[in-house]
Amino acid sequence: MHRRIPQRFTIFIACTGKTPLTISIHPLILVAILLGSISFPVVSVAKAFQTMTNRNSQLTHENRNLNKQAQEILEGMEQLESEIDALQRRAGMPETGSENQSRLPQGGVPLAVEGKFFLSVAEEQLPQLMEDLEGTQPALEATLKRENARPQGLPLKASYRETSGFGFRRNPFGGGSEFHGGLDFVAAFRSPIYPTAPGKVIRAEMSRGYGYHVVIDHGYGYKTLYGHMSGLAVTSGMTVDRDRIIGYLGNTGRSTGPHLHYEVFRNDQPVDPKYYLD
Questions:
Q1: What is the span of the domain harbouring residue 167?
Q2: DSSP letter at 17?
């Protein structure tokens, strides 16, 4: 025999000295109240869990971005260190660091870089890298000046043809052989002539052998001579750079036709100019 569900529940609330309070509640209402009292904390917990999940996702995204930035900065520091070492080698200086080993973490940057670890690396190594860079600058500047003083390239921009090279050759003015101390370039008459390195003009004059010619002292033991020009565009004592016209191709002096005679000296000794053309 099944028990019937009451149609209504009656609740009596007794108070001392007062008439009892009677409340009649339908079973469905009571069930709704019970369900509501249970669902409220469940919903609250669910909302709190969702909030924590969203916050955790946000922190994970921020951490991933910070790790990426940390990796890029550390890679930049490694690149800076590599460039400093290259500059030191170019300047003839010993490379910095213990036994020439990198001062930065090796083997790549970890996927999860701890903030404190990264900050300690940056704080420790960046000042040292900047000090190394500042220490390299004077030696590098001296190296660049020395390299800039080295003759390089052609002394004319016009189309040319090389005729006589450096060394012994047949004497064009008689029998036998003679030593030819430079290179001869045939080009259009009065083609502009340019220095192959910046320097100071120490001679700009006419002579029986070289005709109108210019000698430039570039420093660091380098000098160049430009001969047989048709005219001069500089005077002795002038400072010139690579873009300054110093004269014009011609046929003066001991010459068999219009050309430029070009010589290079290293510590006052003639050297083959072909090694200075590139």
A1: 160-276
A2: T
Q: Check whether residue 145 and residue 167 sit in a common domain.
A: no
Nearest to residue 195, comparing CAs of 236, 155, 160, 228? 155
Q: Which two tokens stand for residue 164?
A: 């006589």
* Domain limit, last residue, from 123, 149, 175: 149
Asked whether residue 183 is assigned to any structural domain, the reply reads: yes
Task: Please give the helix or strand (H or E) that residue 217 lies within, else none.
Answer: strand 211-219
On whether the CB atoms of residues 190 and 222 are closer than 8 A, the answer is no
Q: Are residues 1 and 89 in the same domain?
A: yes
C-alpha–C-alpha distance, residues 68 and 73, integer Å? 9
Q: What is the per-residue pLDDT across 5-55, written as a single tens digit (0 to 9) for each?
A: 566 666 666 666 667 766 666 666 666 666 666 666 655 666 777 777 777
Q: Which residue matches tokens 């709704």?
A: 32
Of 69-83, 92-106, 133-147, 182-196, the one with minimum mean pLDDT is 92-106
Same domain, 109 and 171: no
Give a yes or no: residue 139 inside a domain: yes
* Calpha distance 34→22 (Å, rounded): 20
> pLDDT (tens digit, 9 = 90+) per residue, 113-171?
455 566 666 667 777 777 777 777 787 788 888 899 999 999 999 999 999 899 888 87
